[in-house]
Every structure is written in C-alpha cells, then in structure tokens.
Amino acid sequence: MPAPLNTMADAIRVLSMDAVEQANSGHPGMPMGMADVAAVLWTKFLKYDAARPDWADRDRFVLSAGHGSMLLYSLLHLSGVKAVTLDSLRNFRQLGSNTPGHPEYGHTPGVETTTGPLGQGLATAVGMAMAERHLAARFGGDLVDHRTWVLAGDGCLMEGVSHEAISLAGRLKLAKLTVLWDDNDITIDGHVGLSDATDQLARFKAAGWAVKRIDGHDFGQIRRALAWATRQDRPSLIACKTIIGKGSPTFAGTHDVHGKALGKDEVVKTRENLGWPHEPFVVPDEIARAWRSAGRRGAKVRKAWEARLAASTLRGEFERAMAGELPKTAFAALDQFIADAEAKAPAAATRQHSGAVLEKIFGEIPELVGGSADLTGSNNTFVKNTPILDAPDYAGRYVNYGVREFGMAAAMNGLALHGGVIPYGGTFLVFTDYSRPAIRLAALMGIRVIHVGTHDSIGLGEDGPTHQPVEHLASLRAMPNVNVFRPADAVETAECWKLALDAKATPSVLALSRQKTAAVRTQPIGENLSARGAYQLAAATKPALVTIFASGTEVPVALAARDLLEAEGIGARVVSVPCFELFEAQPRDYQETLIGETDVRVAVEAGVRMGWDRFIGSDGVFVGMEGFGASAPDKALYKHFGITAEAVAAAAKAKL
Amino acid sequence: MPAPLNTMADAIRVLSMDAVEQANSGHPGMPMGMADVAAVLWTKFLKYDAARPDWADRDRFVLSAGHGSMLLYSLLHLSGVKAVTLDSLRNFRQLGSNTPGHPEYGHTPGVETTTGPLGQGLATAVGMAMAERHLAARFGGDLVDHRTWVLAGDGCLMEGVSHEAISLAGRLKLAKLTVLWDDNDITIDGHVGLSDATDQLARFKAAGWAVKRIDGHDFGQIRRALAWATRQDRPSLIACKTIIGKGSPTFAGTHDVHGKALGKDEVVKTRENLGWPHEPFVVPDEIARAWRSAGRRGAKVRKAWEARLAASTLRGEFERAMAGELPKTAFAALDQFIADAEAKAPAAATRQHSGAVLEKIFGEIPELVGGSADLTGSNNTFVKNTPILDAPDYAGRYVNYGVREFGMAAAMNGLALHGGVIPYGGTFLVFTDYSRPAIRLAALMGIRVIHVGTHDSIGLGEDGPTHQPVEHLASLRAMPNVNVFRPADAVETAECWKLALDAKATPSVLALSRQKTAAVRTQPIGENLSARGAYQLAAATKPALVTIFASGTEVPVALAARDLLEAEGIGARVVSVPCFELFEAQPRDYQETLIGETDVRVAVEAGVRMGWDRFIGSDGVFVGMEGFGASAPDKALYKHFGITAEAVAAAAKAKL
Prior knowledge:
The structure is a homodimer.
Chain A lengths: L4 H19 L5 H17 L14 E4 L5 H11 L6 H5 L29 H20 L8 E5 L1 H5 L1 H12 L5 E7 L2 E2 L2 E2 L8 H7 L3 E6 L3 H12 L5 E6 L22 H11 L10 H12 L2 H13 L3 H9 L8 H13 L3 E2 H12 L6 E5 L3 H4 L18 E3 L4 H14 L3 E7 L3 H14 L4 E5 L17 H6 L5 E3 L4 H13 L5 E4 L4 E2 L17 E4 L5 E7 L4 H13 L3 E6 L3 H5 L3 H8 L4 E5 L8 H4 L4 E3 L10 H7 L4 H11 L1
Parallel strand pairs in A: 1-2, 2-3, 3-7, 6-7, 9-10, 9-11, 11-12, 12-14, 13-14, 17-18, 17-19, 19-20
Antiparallel strand pairs in A: 4-5, 8-15, 16-18
C-alpha cells in the first residue's frame, strides 16, 4: 500500500522545519501550511518528470511566496530531482548550496523563476502562461500544452503588481493559469486583518477569474478544486484556507511561525504531534518511494511528447526557438539598413530609428513578441500589420499590456523564462521606475528581455519633470547585469538592437529620444562599434587637448562643440558612449587608450553626472543636469539647462 | 440669472482646448470629458475659497489623471485663484509659467500634489484623507473637517498602486475620500477593452468601497451622486461615464483627442458645435462672474473656521504643526541619547539604534506618524504602546500599511502634503525599488517624508540576493533632492534622524543595517558631524599615505584596515561618509580638505562603486560589490565578497 497523502505531506513539513532549524534561518510557516495542497498538486496534477525538470512541455510551478522556499526544495528533493539532495537541504541558506534563502532561477533545477520580492512570481507566471498559449498557437497543441500553477500568499495579493497581473491575465483569458492562494490569515506583522480587508474572491472575479474557496487541509476538496481549475475557460483562483505552520502545537496559526526557526523544543513537540518519530532529514522508505513514484509519473507523457517532437516537421524550429538561438538570417535585412543609414544619414528621433529597426527584424525573428504599456504610438514598438496576441487566437505577436509597466516587465520575464519567446516592451524611460523591480529580477536571473524606454531626457519637452528622466540612466547603469543602451542615431540604434538580441543572459534597456537628432555615423565601417560600449567617433585634427564624451542625443552636441573648439585651434576628439557596461567588458588597454589623457575631459549627457567620472575623472567637466527638468519645448529646455555645444566648448576652454 | 452649469462647463472645455492649441501640446480629451463633473463638484460641493487656496481646512482636490492639467488650471483660473491668470493659460507648458504640462505642487496655488505618473494621485490622496481623519482626532472636528476628492482615469485604475491605495483606504474606512473615475472607455492606444476588462465597480466594492455609476454628462445625476458620496461610511467611487473630448464634433469619443491639440479647423468646429462664439481665451462676463461667485462660496465658511481657530486653545499647536515646525523640545531627549551613546559606545544593528532614537523623539514630536509595510519588527519602526491609526479612532500614530511599499510611500507623500503630519515608514532597503516612483515625486515636490530602509546590504545574510541591496544606495543617490543617510552607529543614526527631521523640503532615506556593528563615535563632540555629509573620523598618526572612505557598517571595517596599515607604519586616515548629498552642500574648501591628497584613496561600501569616484577619483581603489549578493550568513558573505579590513589594507598597500 502506498504511503497516504497526509504522511507524504508531513514529509514536506518535517524537512522544511528541519532545514530551517539547521540554518537557524528561514520560513517554516508557509511550507507547513501549504504541504497538503502541494502534495496533491505534485502527486496528482502537475505534469512533470523529475528526471527531466527542464522538459519543455512540463507544467510550470511558480512559488510566488518565495520565502517558503523549503516547500519547493522539499518537493524537488522528494520527487527525485537529482541535484536536490539531502545535503542540499542540510545546507539550506549556506554559501554555494543550491538551496538559497529564496528560490533562484539557474541555481536549482526545477526552480522556474526567482521569487521573493512579493507579487512578482504571480506576475511572471502570467507571462509564462502567455508564452504557452502563444507557442501552442505557433507549434500546435501536440508540442505545447501545459499549465502554469502559482502558489501565492497574502503578501503577493496585497502588492500592486498582483492587480496588474490578474487584470492582464483575466483580459487575456489565460485558462491554463491557476493561482493557489495560501489563505492563512497571517502576515509578518500579525493577522492579515490588521492591514487588509479585501474580498479577494470578489476581486479576482472582477478581473475575470473563476474563483473557488476550499479547506486547504481537506485532500478531497483540494483534489476536486484542482480538477475544477483544469476545466475553466478563464484563469482560476483557489483560495486555500490553511493554518500556517500546521503541525507545530505551539505556533500553528500564528505569525510567530512565519519567518523563523521553531526552536529545538518545538521541533521535538512538532515531531510528536505529527507522529513522526524519525531523525532530522530522515524520510522513511515507504514515504520516499511514494514520492519518487509520483516524481516519475510524467515520464511516460514526456517520452510520448519526445516521440511526437521527433516526428514533427517543426522540430528544428521548435528546438531552435526554445534554445533561444536566433535564426541565421536574423540580421540580414538589418545589415542592409545599417549600410543605407550610413549612406543616407537620416535625421530622426532614435525611437523612430528603433521602429525602423523592428520593421527589419520582426519578420526575421519569429520569437520576437512586442508590446507597450499603452504607449504604442509613442514607443514605436508596433510593426504594422502585426496581429495582436489575444484570446482566442494567441498566435499574434504584439501585446496590449495596458497601463501596467511593472506587470508588463514581469510578464516579459515570464515570456523569456518559459522559452521560445524573446520579449520586448515599451514605455517612457522615466517609468522604468515603475518596472524596476522586475528589471532587477531579470538581471539577477540573467535572462534576455528588452525594454524600450523612449522619451529619454528633458528632450521630451512639455510633459515636464514628472516625465523627464534625469537620474534614470545612472540608476539603471548602477544595476548589475543590465545593458543600458543610449544610441545616437540610426546606425547605433541598429547596432544596439543587435547587441540586445545577442545578449542571451542579460536584459537590456534601450533609451531612445522623442526628439529628432542628427546622424553621427555616416561612414561605412563594417564593424558594430557600439559593441565596444564606447568608441572614438571623431578624431582631433590637431594635437588633442580636449576629449568630449557623450551619449545619444548629446553626441551631435559634442560634435558641434568639437567644431567650435577646432575652429579656435583647439584639438578636440569625440567619443560616443552608447553602453557603459560593454565598455567595462573591453580589454583594459582599449579602455585606457580610448579615454586617453587629453588636458581636458568633458562629458555631456542630459542626465545626472553619476557614473561619468569613469570617463572624465572626478576633476573632469560634466555638462548635464543637476536637478529635475521643467515643462517647456525641448529646445528651450536644452538652452535653459545649458546643454549646448556652446556651453560644452566654453566649459572645455575654461578648464584649459 | 446666473450662467447655467453647461455653459460654465463649456468654459472649461474651451479654455482647455485653446491652451492646448496654443501650446500645440497637451491633453484636451480629459478636461473636455470631465468638465461637467468638475463644474458640479467645484461649484456645489468642493469646500474651498479661491482667495485662500492654502486654507488648512479646505477640501483637497487631486487630479490623479495629471495629463488633464488644463482641467485644473481652468478651474483655478475661473474660480478666481489670483496667480492663475489668463496669461498663465496662454503660457501653458512654457518655460517659467505656473501652468506646466502636468500639475506641479509648489508651482501653482491650488495644486495639492504633483501628478502625471499614473495611479499616484489616487494613492497620495489616500494619505491626505488619512491625515484629515488623524488631525480631526487630534484637534477636533471644529478645526479639521474636510473631504478629499480624486479625479482618476482608466490609467490610474490599471496601475498596480491603485490596488494598494484602494485596499488601504477601504481597510481604514476613509469615508471622506471620493474617487471620480473618468470612465470614458479610452486609453492612449485605443478602446480600454484592448487591454482591460476589469469590472471596476465590483473591484472597488471588494476593497470595501461604496460604488455608484452615473452618466457624467447629466448634471442631476452628478449632483445626486456627489451628495450620496458625502453620506457614505466608507470611501466612495463614482464611475462617471463620459465622452472623452466632448464638444469636438470629429474626435469626441476617440483616442485621437487624448493627447494632442485638436488642430485649427477642429477648434473652429468645436466652437460652433458648443455654440461658443467667443475668441480664444475669452470667457464672457456672465460666465466668468458665475465662476468667481462659486469661487467665493467658501469664504464665509473659511472665515467662521478662522474665528474658531482664533478662539481655540489648540491654536498655537495647530498652527505649529501645520507649518511643519518641530516643537522646541523635539531633540532634548535625543541629545542626551547621543551623549550617552558617545560614552557607552553601544554595539548593535543601526536599525536598532534607529528604534532607540524613535523612542526618544516620538513622544516629543506629536506630528510623527510611523508605519511599516508589514515589517514592523524588522524595521524597528514601532514605538511601544503606540496606538494604531485605524477606524474608528484615527488618533493612533502607527499605520499598518500592509505589504504595500509603493502605496505606503505615496500615502506618506499625502500625509506630508496635507500638513500637520511628519510621516516615516519602513521596509527593507531593497524594496525602495517598489516605492521608488513615490520617492521621486517626494523629491520633485520637495516634501519631508522619511523612508526607513533596513537590511541595507549583503549583511542581511541568508535571505539572499533578492533581498540584498547592492545598487540601491547608488540609485537613490542619483536621484535629485533625496538625502540618503547611511549611519554607522548610534551617534550617527541619531544625527541622521535629526537631519531628516530638519529637512523640510527634502525626503530622506535612512539605510540601516540588519546586523550588529561596532560604535565608531565614542568621543563627545558637541556637533552634528553627519550634517557635513562626510567628516574625518580618525586621523593618521603618522604622515598620511592612505585615506579610507566608508559608510555605515563598513566604517568599522575601514577603522580596522587603518589599524592594520598603521601597524605596518603606513599612515592612514578614515573618513566617514553618512550622506553624499550633504557633503555636496559643503563649502568647496571643506570638501577639498576632507578628501585630501593622500597617495592612495580607498572607499569601502557593501554596494556598487558608482558615485564613489567623487571621493577616490577614477583611479581610486574601491572595495565593495561588483554584482549581486548571495544567500549565506552575513559573515560568510563579507568574507566571500572580500569586504574585510584585510582586503582593504591589502588593496591600499598594493596601490602604494
């Protein structure tokens, strides 16, 4: 007779409790409370094969309440995911283990996304569910047909991003998305009622979800609810009423069990209470076997799928897409575009150049799925005649994300994590502040998402300081593993798009201008100069006394300043800096030579100085912004804030 | 006979259309659509006196859909707010005008808060409504009794922060808060249905709001709904079904009228359609008189209130609080705390020092209202025995904000903008990414809000990289007009709290450690050294070859490195840097002397380098983080990432 579900669930409880106790750090409450729901899901419903946790058509399980990481590690270990050993559990939260405090994508097989910052797991899962529907439309239900399950806590549902996520999912009728809400009435500070009185079921229903409430410790109710979820024609929420820390005789149902070890005595008492006589980290054979058997449940389905894939005419394309490899012809048309731009030197806003680049690559790279947070026309993100990704036919490749910058960014993470999609999405650069927490997770996970941030400076003009990024270039450059591109013209914009698409393990932000700007790259070069991060755009015609560094729309300003200086007999060179991060990746001698040692080094960028000392030194001259912008036409603002060729030349001369 | 409401509303329509046309930039659609609702509100319900737009007991009107700024400017002008002249409207969106593209607090009398970043007006209004209830409890309904009205658009309601705002308001039963939703079915990209299908009424109801739907062009329905709102025992939402751009024969009801000038021809047609024969910016006397009469409606009420205030025993305290002046004894106990700390040199986490500081000032400064985004115990923000600010008795001074960092930060802005409250609120420093858009608005507005950001580095340990700020100090320092404090010990923590409280026009972020750290200020000084931003903490005992700059928990690391160097005969000094921004405000000679010209300059901070070149030059040595952190106990992490006294000393020697 196989082990009954309750003892299988208790195995999760005890392993979670033991690992937290061993680390003397962590969150036992949620794993103990949700063990029953998780046991039913993982042994009866979740489509997965522990031998192949990366199988493309597996169900995705997202632990949005990431602090309950021991639930997930216990499940992975018990199911038989090889890398998650008993030693992994013993080393919970220790340096170098594959069981970090919160689940981290890339560290542990079976962890679908990094979670911990609340609400984002749910919002990322929406992207995964979108990817599933989209790829099913592209490759057929034979190859793509799986569900996305989310375990979310009260904190996830209080976070604003949950609203963006559930309203987007409801609008898109993502029927294969199910949220299991750990409805335990407890937050860190105490009873959830201290801070919230939302009727969550009514709220989700208002967003277009199917909803149901169950006792999260009644196996029959759990099973029926999960089966119910699979029959819905819209996303589904199951409110699982649970007791946090269930099993602990003293702390169950209280916030004391949320985020710290139970303590030696209580661990003993909990073992007694559960009737679990085994030593720490010991799972009796019978229970271990039952779990491993559940972990093999999907093997047959997986093999059948592999056979279908092997027989499919779409196999090559499917495997290429899922591996994230670009088609060989991805940039064929774009390279011609670059050559044309070098010849014709078009003056336009870089957002327009970006739109033109998309026209050249969108047809060539079928994985590209674009969108905008309700600024499509302003962001130039839409390639004409592209069908919209929407119910019931998800084959479209453009998403109307709505006024949901954060939700969009998190969904883009989910699209990328799922695989088979390369997402890009637009908003004004200033509103990367809204999406910043998701950009950070993309950077931490090392995934390819492309943020199109238009209206990238005071150059946006009349909308004023609420809409004018000033510190955003600096603050995004401060974030590890994000490539921040600020191209100057059509050629650089095309180059930066290529770099963003080639960066499989790094998210990118493209900062693009609203206003028209002159071409600066007007000679055929045959090399992607932006790949160096910074490069000499114009040499001095006489011994160089001044170097002017600039990015984006300020590169023409720098060139004009150079002309002024040279006209006065002062040798000046101009360095274009489209990407700080790629410059840092260059060999040191390239960096040193490029920066050079002219008497005066000046940087000009319509943003704050922070970061530019790398190029100009702390005694260099910076021409840019010292505070917030203002509402006025763009030319008036550049003049008002002194970001002009005359000002740059004068500052250089004053310093000489 | 006074002018009828419809012509008064048309005056708004035409002024808005004319100003946008004149600027050839702006958003005519919303003002034209909501003119009828606004006309009823401002002429019949809103308690205000145009002669005194800063009267303390006025109703607050928040234009959350800030792009419709011409609605507000029209209302202020028509009502008779002196500063908003016809010339102001003619100079809409021009440099130096008081009619910037989006409403900006401090630029225009009658503008209660800066709006434009969607959703935040609503979330800020929640704070205003909280302040009203709290101050009514403190000073009585005779002195404080007013409503907060919000005009929000579809974009506001799609933004995640709206969820945090409405669930907090619902939980707190803020009955004097009413949202007028411009339910016009249009967003920038087209019909709202392209991206959203939320049943907003059901959603607000689920959050505990009273809800009602009306025809936003039916004056009777508008009037009855506004009256209904004033009778509710909870916050209220009125969905006003409107036609965007109403009046424009060609574009009304379409997204074409959302965000650009109508164009010359259409302006003519709209005049004809409205039966408005007057020249641009001309309002006929009869209509102008009716509006000005409405603008004087509140004068009598205001004068009666002034009489009550004059007679009140609470007058002095009320006026002091509303002026934002601290009590004279604000820091009496804290100064003793500093003296004690200098003498006793307590080692503890700086978050604990912060908690101890609060114990000393909370009783002395009755305006302080604290809170946390569900991390009260971790943030040390709660002063014991403080009653909770909650319905029905709002006299409490601690807010359970829930897991709503952004909503909290926006509500704090509202508390500060209302006046009479000095808000502080806690979360982990890493989650300032969630609240960042509201911190930015506080900086732009120049208001005093205090963010307590604990767990300020890898020193938080096991929770891992999702919770470890690495780039946050740099990214917050990049933002104009924010003081980022990172104190090292009890004395610096007390000093920084004083500076934050004294900064009436600047928001502050206090970055505080989770982990215990040694005292560094152990001599009585009698001066707030943190006020200099950076100061020499330890001189070299021999000719100085090395200067070590550090902040927070890395100051003891710097001191220990100095000891190591001095033990080897290398003179080394240590500079503590609790606040970059205040250092920049020092005289240049202080800055130059402090930074000095030792052979080697080293900075140590458990974050990224960006910004530190100001102190060490681009050729200086930085000991800190180059990427994300990891999950492990804090001591293991400091060692793993090489942030130790030994590493600092070795780096300095290598450079010598």
